[in-house]
Amino acid sequence: MGKLAMVLASGELEKLQAASIIASVASTVGMEVLLFATMDGLMAFRKDVVEEKAWKTGELGKGMLEKNAPLFIDTLKQAKEVGNIKIYACGMVMDMLGLKKEDFVDIFDDVLGVTAFLGMVEGAQVLFI
């Protein structure tokens, strides 16, 4: 059906929520989905950030947290169970900050550099979020 690639560079909850919904729907309708978490988008997956629900939020994000709406982490985990979705962490950011894969929630398929990710997404529709 096609390939969708998304670069998650923002740590804003609303953007992560939107990205997870788009990725989930795309994967369940048969698209191959590749996500690359980098910069603040990667930091949003840190265990301490997730446990404390300490994302950058606007009014909508605050409302989602207050109402205990399903979060992007859960949406992505469910999508991985039923669809063709792979999620990668940015190795450069991890190296710069001295972080390991274990510092993040258990969702990443691998740690990659930008060059490797770009090689995987050739011919794909790419969204930058």
Order of SSEs:
EHEHHHHEHEHE
Strand content: 15-25%
Multimerization status: single chain
CATH class label? Alpha Beta
* Order of adjacent strands in the largest pleated sheet: 4-3-2-1-5
How many β-strand stretches? 5
Looking at the overall shape, the CATH architecture is: 3-Layer(aba) Sandwich
Q: How far apart lie the N and C ends? A: 22 Å
Overall mean pLDDT stands at: 95
Shape field? globular
Instruction: Please outline the major beta sheet.
Output: 5 strands, parallel
User: If you consult CATH, what is the topology?
Assistant: Hypothetical Protein Ychn, Chain: A
Number of helices: 7
The residue fraction in helices comes out at: 40-55%
Please state the CA-atom Rg, rounded to the nearest Å: 14 Å
Low-pLDDT stretches: none
User: Please, what is the CATH homologous superfamily?
Assistant: DsrEFH-like
Indicate the structural class. alpha/beta
